[in-house]
Structures are given as structure tokens and as C-alpha cells.
Amino acid sequence: MRIVVIGSVAAGTSAAAKARRNDESAEIVIYEKDRDISYSGCGLPYYIGGVVKERAKLTPRDEAFFKQRYNIDVFTGHSVADIDTASKTLSIVNMATGEQFEDRYDKLLIATGAHPIMPPIPGIDKPNVFPLRNVAHADAINEFIQQKQPRHAVIIGGGFIGLEMAENLVHRGIAVDLADMAPQVMTPLDPDMAIYVQQYLERNGVKLYLGHAVEELLGDEEVDTVRLAGGIEIETDMVIMAIGIRPEVELAKRAGIALGPTGAIAVDTRMQTNVPDIYAAGDCAEAFSVINGKPLYRPLGSTANKMGRIAGDQMTGGDLEFRGILGTGIFKTFDMAVAQTGLSEKEAKAQGYDVVVCHNIKYDHADYYPDSAEMVIKAVADKTTHKILGAQIVGPRGVDKRIDVFVTAITFGAKAEDLFHLDLAYAPPFSTAKDPVMYTGMILEGILKRQRPLMTPDQLIQRQMAGEPVTIIDTREPEMYEKGHIEGAVNIPLEDLRSEAGKLDKNIPVVTYCNRGVTGNAAQNLLLQMGFKEVYNLSGGYNNYKVQRKRC
């Protein structure tokens, strides 16, 4: 059997290696149009920033490695021009010599990845405008920085690569402005979580231009000014284009291979396309949601490796099948970790779910143990089934640990009330006695099963702006109230609430709050038991409200 793989990064090399482990007798060949293979694309920003010192750390394997270790023939600098599905042949071009030749396959894997989006903006072809998708792009950026010593950069795009590059350019002493046509950074996040990232970036010196599309890159030999919509002009020495990627599917389309609704190659759970004996995996292939089975395109190295392993197994008679993804992602910018899994609130509502949400601000470990730090967790659950639909977390430490617990819970269909019963590891240096994940479950259970509703800061602000009657009770001590409070709030510390509650109108909606929500919840319980009709605790407390008020 002859197995041919097109593409040699995460999915392609994983598939070839798995196929070899399954079948020593198979002929396995990889064609790659670039020069670098099996590299860590996710590490490229850190190579540029100097965190990763050696290029070789990101490109540890070459053609000789795969030949020696796996008896796999890898041909770099070779482009597959066409696929003839009837004859099972490939037209291939040696890009160095121009030689054209044919090869045949019994099983074919398309792992062509994705390409950076480079919109037709005037000036985008100037030599100091850079995408970042592969090692060659990173080399070009590094060389430019070393030779030209730029003092200022503009990043176009506020996603993973844009925010990772912001950190790493600042670390190299380069001032950074970041522009995005969206009104927020990290569009997979809900706006009330993205605002935490935005404020953090600004505190670290990154100037943001959100809601402004790029119209033109100005300059003679090189770009020296970025013009945004609305006439905004930013002087710069270099530009990083990080507005996203698209699946590389032209070869597949020409061969009659079907695409899915996301624009990536449609595959089944065995990574098979609609054409017999042709498989697809990695950033060119479409995934599906674990939650609802709907098509999903979230290109990440972890998913590409998984898909590749499954494809390699299937091509050699194995039974591995793809089980879908949650679209889980995590990255760091400066010292903030940002993570998301499953559906956001806006996605869940758009897909017809009746949702409940909560904001939980908790320390990553016991606050009396040194170096504890707050994280903000937003969780989304289905009001009907109580199942957890998604979570978003921002904070300096402990974020990766908590997001992976949510991933596991959602994958296995956990309900919100199940989170409290998880037997998670606890000791003061590592967690709190009620871990932030467990506490999130407690909050959601209170909403879903005990009629302890939350009101988000957005909802409260909307009520205030509409002039709707609402009693807002600040349950903190007077000195905290004096330092800052919600407009119109009355200060009734929790210990005074029993005696003061009789002065309040039980028929007017009440919102209680403290700094983070715990004391506010105690006040809510008390008022409900005293016969108040409609009492809400403010989601995330005053700390969350302060952040959201600036956004609204």
C-alpha cells in the first residue's frame, strides 16, 4: 500500500508516524511545498520575542529524521498541483528545479493547513508588512527587527497571534498599537470578558483602536503610516497582519472534494472526505462541536495532531474516530492568561439556548498563602438541561488548570450542580478549599435550582438607563462604600440588613452586591426569606460592575 500525505506540519507528520506504527510494510511519502517541517507554529511569537532563543527548538525534525526513525520519505519544496481521483495520481512540481512529475497513491491525506488572510489593502505588499504563519515569516520579522531596529509597530488583528505578538514586540522594546475592525479584542470571548483583556493590554502600554478597519498602508518604499477608518492615522516602522487564517482548500476543490459550511474540507469521524481513499486533517479540515454536533472551524495545533493521528490510523485499518471539539483555546499576553471553551453567551443565545450565566471572581489559591491572584470566570449553562455549555477565564495564574476541568466536565455532559461534587486537589499553595470551579457550580446551582437569580452588570446598567425602578443595596462596610459604589445604591451592611429591611418596598426589584458576590448572596438569601418578591445578586459584584461600567 502506498500512502501519500500532502503537508508536513502537525496533522501530516502525525498521520504519517501513526500509519508507520500500524503498518511497517506501507510505502509512506510526504510532499511539502515549504522548507520547514513538523514545526511548532504556536511557538513562533515567542521565538520573535526572544523567549525561545534557538530556531532549532521550533524545528527539531527534518527529512533525515523521518527517514531514519520512520522510513518515511519527505520531499520539501515540492508542490502538489493536481489530484486525479479517477486514476489516483498526483501532479507534482519540484519548486527548485521546475521539474514536473506524477506519483500515485492508494490512500491520500490532504493536510495543506491554512494561509494567513492578506486583504487587498493598498500598501499591503510593502516589505515591512508581515504575516505570521510559518517559520519563514518569523525569520523575516526577526531579520527586519535586527537590521532596522524599529521603535514602533502596528498590529492589525486582536486574536491569538495579534495579542501574543503585542507582548513579544513590547518585550523587544518596540511600542505597539493594535487595531481591529471588531469592537473588542478576541471575538470568541463575550464582550464582558474581552474588556478585562483590553484594559490589561492598555495597562501594559498597548494602544488599542477597536471598531476601526484598516483602509490604507501609506509610505513610499516602506509603510510609515497606517490609515484607519474615520481618518485615524498611526505612524509606524512595521506592520504585523494578524487578522486570521483561511483553510487551504484550493487543491481539494479542484479535485471535487466537498467543503463544509465553514469553508474547510468536510470529513466524517474517520477523517474521510466524500472521495474514496482521500482523507483530510488539520487546519484545512472541518471539525464539529461536542455540544451539539454542528460544524466548527477552530484551527489549533492540538486538534491538528489529533486529527492526523486518527487519519493515519484509519488509512492503515485502525478504528480511531474523531469525537469533536469544544473550540478550547488558551493564550497569554504579558502576564494574563486568557482561556475559553464551549459556547460563549452570545453563541449559545444565537443557537437558541435559554441560558443562565454567572461571573465568579476568586483567588487561584488560598489568599493567605503568598502570591495569590484573582481570576474571573464566566460560565454559561442551559436553563432547561442544566448542562454546562461554556466557560471563559482570565487571570494571571491557575487559568489553565480550571479551563481544563470545565473542558472535561462539558465533554462528559456534566450539569452545573455536578461541579460542586468534584473531588479536586486542594492545598493552600494550589487551590482554595472550594475550588473556583466548584464555586462556579454552586453559583449556577443557586440560579437553576434554588431561585437565587443573578443580574449581570449589563442588565443593571440597562435598567438604570431605562429609568426602571430598582433598589440597589451595597452590603459592604461604610468605608468601602465611600471609596466607590454604584450610582443610586444605598449602603446597608449585611449585619444591619435584618433591622433595616422593613424600610424597603418589598414589591420593587432589589439588587444586592458586595465586592465579588459572596456577601451579596447572603443578603439576597435573607431578603427572599423575609418575603421580598424579586431579589437579585449582582454577578461578579462591584469589582465586575466597575469594569463593565467603563465598557457600557
Automatic annotation (TrEMBL):
Its cofactor is FAD. The keyword Oxidoreductase applies. It holds the Pfam family Pyr_redox_dim. The keyword S-adenosyl-L-methionine does not apply. GO terms for molecular function: oxidoreductase activity. Residues 466-547 form the Rhodanese domain. Keywords: FAD, Flavoprotein, Oxidoreductase, Redox-active center. It comes from the Bacteria. InterPro entries: FAD-bd_OxRdtase (IPR050260), FAD/NAD-bd_sf (IPR036188), FAD/NAD-binding_dom (IPR023753), FAD/NAD-linked_Rdtase_dimer_sf (IPR016156), Pyr_nucl-diS_OxRdtase_dimer (IPR004099), Rhodanese-like_dom (IPR001763), Rhodanese-like_dom_sf (IPR036873). Belongs to the class-III pyridine nucleotide-disulfide oxidoreductase family. This is FAD-dependent pyridine nucleotide-disulfide oxidoreductase. It comes from Mahella australiensis (strain DSM 15567 / CIP 107919 / 50-1 BON). The lineage of its organism: Bacteria, Bacillati, Bacillota, Clostridia, Thermoanaerobacterales.
